[in-house]
Amino acid sequence: xxxxxxxxxxxxxxxMTLGSLTSLSVxxxxxxxxxxxVEDAWARARTATAKVAGAFMEIENxxxxxxxLVSASSDISARVEIHTTKMEDxxxxxxxxxxxxxxxxxxxxxxxxxxxxxxxxxxNKQLEEGTMFPVTLSFEKAGDVKVMVHVKSSGAMGEGHGxxxxxxxxxxxxxxxxxx
Length: 180
Ligand SMILES: [Cu+2]
Hints:
The chain has 180 residues and is mainly beta.
């Protein structure tokens, strides 16, 4: 009897997983699900030996009610967490947002380097520049939103945050610069 109960539960759990997978919508650059719109999801390229990666994006809530990004999942890593970055005693620390991130009604929240991000821990896949991978974001009210994350170069800072890369500086011009 006990055994039978366990098996029934396993079957029900399996069916629920299938059900939630088939109801997901897939889009490349812009994913929306009801009032939640996710744009410009990206991550930095990672080497094959890297164990962690972060993903950044803009999340817009077009509804009149606050929503909350509660969790995320992906098959590229063993675990996916929602993090923020805080400066503590001169050291950048990542802190898990156990209650998720509130996306206020009618507002847009940016996940960006140095701030909120989706963290992939225990990477099982190399993130190669120019490729994409899917991540499912779970919202308290809007439900699951599947987003394609674009892999950019390892030094990418995101739109509007471009820092000059030293290896791309024009060395001809360097000679004209004062060295002191
Ligand atoms: Cu993190």
